[in-house]
Amino acid sequence: MTARALGGRYRLEQKIGEGGMAEVYRATDMLLDRTVAVKMLRTQYAEDEEFVRRFRQEAQAAARLSHPNIVNVYDVGVEDGQQYIVMEYVDGPTLKDVIVERAPLRVEEVIRISRQICSALQHAHELHVVHRDIKPHNILLTKTGQVKVADFGIARAATGQTITHRQATTVLGSVHYFSPEQARGGPTDAKSDIYSLGIVMYEMLTGKLPFEGESPVTVALKHLRDPFVEPRQLNKEIPQSVENIVLRCLAKEPESRYPDMAAVMADLDRALERPNVPKYTPSGGVDDRTIVVPAMGDRLSEALKSAGTEGDSEEDGGRAKPPMARWKRVSLITGIVILSVVALGLGGYAAIDIVTKLLTVPNVELPSVVGKPVASAVATLEAAGFSRQQIQEKFEPNLKAASGIVYQQSPAGNTQVKKTRDITLYVSQGAPKVAVPDVTNEPLDQAKQALVSAGFSANNIVVQTETSDSVPSGDVISSDPSPGTQVPITAKITLTVSQQQYVTVPKLVGLTLQQAEAAIQAAGLTLGTVTPSDLVNQNPLVSYVYPYIQGDRVPAGSTINLYVVPNPASVAPSNETGNSTGNATTGSNNASQGDNAGNGTNAVGNTVGGANNSTQPTAGAVPQPPQPPAGGPPGHQKRKGH
User: Fold this and answer.
1) Which of 80, 277, 354, 468 could serve as a FRET partner for 302 with CA atoms 20 to 30 Å apart?
2) Which reaction is recorded as catalysed by this protein (predicted)?
């Protein structure tokens, strides 16, 4: 077997355990190079289609569980008709090994182990996975003392089988931890795991099991009808607070047990803080740890005597009970006794079966009321036969359900429950409320992060902009709702963010410096550098602008730099200029002169003449500036047509 590799991946190395239904091997996952545990079902289950179907279904459900106190399920497969599960390998003993070696365990250790088991099962129950086979054999302990609950997959599948002679050896290891409802073959839920946990705690605290017998059937019947020796009678070191937890877990009827594992954990957490508490009794003062069947002979006389004299007791203020009340009580007890006599006449298990059925509360269908308004949900449950006193309402914030809507019920709807079962409705109060944090004057990104950290959804943050002279661009001006307001975390939050006003760069090329400066100011911009600076006092003409160009949309207040050239209108005329001016006036240019400088002067003269004939210089008439430094002024952009 050690040379075998399942699925070409898991190399079996050594058998490390076995039970009635499976064998467990230490193996190596050759793909991921890690040690795993492989549990292989025995071959006799391979032909049971229902078993195989439920086994795979529940093993896959267990694989969805992710909790530090649950053995991880990595893979499920079948090879040569043999089902197997690949699990996390835990290098440590089972809780059963520890109990056998040194029980009774210290109370502190029992609480620590029990709390981790509760945490694991609470996680599973929240995902609608019920273990159904909680026992010390399925609880592993690491070398650091961490609890690992195993065998979720097999447990659910195994409960599809009934206790029969053929399977007696298979269920022997589990029947000591069965709940009464499992023993009678009825429906089971998370309350069954609570009962089994109570037996595990009982065994850790005392080193003994509460019920033992010669056969699985005998033990199962004891779960149904027999009392047990209370833990403190076997171990005086057990605080009453801890015994109370065990007593409540081991209630015969599920509705008398804890509502869920979270409630068990809460009592475990405070057990050592308040050890000397009153002894636990079920609500109503009736101890349902056993179903009492009146015996014959002396007990019959005592029952009749009690029924006939109870009304005259001085303990009730000396007031005699009405005759009808006494008659009803006598009739009730007499009826039970007669039925018991008839049942016992049948002998043995038949008698127990009949009496148990007579004294067992019937199951009824619990309708689903999730999604209904609370008033409608209560009416639906009352119509189904549940009294108003059985229906409890818990109002809690909920993100998904509107206020006043039932978002969860316990037990779950569309299931069979005891007719006397209490029903808890979880009613939404709407989304939880939080205070809007103050994000004014913060950058938008930081403001959004603060809102998300407070619990608001990023999708519900709306941003609008507004110009502001006092708040830097991109910072938050205000929020709606205002800071400190308590609102649901699903509320929409509107942030008003500062945005600088944008303006258009006007036409500047061809204007005088004075004209350009006025245009820049009028546009809401700022005049920056004028180059070359020695022309500033000569009212030069603008040759080009940078870093923006005409028509650009820029933030108000942006800086505009200018490059200027001499303004011919500001230059004193020379003889040559006068001649040129005269020539320009008559429309005649001295174009035939070969002197380049003269031609240039004539050009200036022509320009001046043009200026004289026009109210504003044109871009085409601006003299070309000297060559700027390599690369141009900072931000310089060449423009065509200017």
Assistant:
1) 354
2) L-seryl-[protein] + ATP = O-phospho-L-seryl-[protein] + ADP + H(+); L-threonyl-[protein] + ATP = O-phospho-L-threonyl-[protein] + ADP + H(+)
Classified by CATH at the fold level, domain 433-500 comes out as Trypsin Inhibitor V; Chain A (3.30.10)
Instruction: Tell me which residues are annotated as active site.
Output: 133
Q: Using the structure block, give the residue that is written with the tokens 């004057």.
A: 441
Q: Which residue numbers in the chain have pLDDT < 50?
A: 1, 154-173, 284-352, 354-356, 358-359, 574-642
C-alpha 436/C-alpha 63 separation (Å) is 41
- Count Cβ atoms below 10 Å from residue 13 Cβ, excluding itself: 16
Structure tokens at 453: 């950290």
Q: Is 345 helix (H, G, I), strand (E, B) or coil?
A: helix
**Structure-token match 């440590």, residue found:** 92
Measure the CA–CA gap between 597 and 258, rounded to whole angstroms. Answer: 110
> What's the pLDDT at 99?
97
CATH number of the 505-621 domain: 3.30.10.20
| 3-class SS string, 52-92 | HHHHHHHHHHHHCCCCCCECCEEEEEEECCEEEEEEECCCC
Angle between helices 190-206 and 107-126 (to 10 degrees): 170
What does the pLDDT look like over 303-342, one tens digit per residue? 333 333 333 333 333 333 444 444 444 444 444 444 444 4
The sign one gets for the Cα dihedral 571, 575, 576, 579 is positive
CATH of range 363-428; options 3.30.10.20, 3.90.180.10, 3.20.20.120, 3.10.350.10: 3.30.10.20
Is beta strand 493-498 parallel, antiparallel or unpaired with respect to 461-466?
parallel
CB 496 within 8 A of CB 465: yes
User: Within 10 A of 207 (CB to CB), how many other CB atoms are there?
Assistant: 15
- Check the annotation: does 39 bind a ligand: yes
The CB density around residue 81, as the number of other CB atoms within 10 Å, is 9
Residues facing residue 79 across a β-bridge: 82
CA distances from 63 to 150, 296, 319 (A): 11, 54, 65
**Residue 43: per-residue pLDDT:** 79
Query: Could you give the angle at the alpha carbon of 93 between the alpha carbons of 76 and 51, nearest 5°?
Result: 30
Beta strands in 98-149 (DSSP E): 139-141, 147-149
pLDDT tens for 535-551 read 888 889 999 999 999 99
Backbone angles phi, psi at 6, to 5 degrees: -75, 135
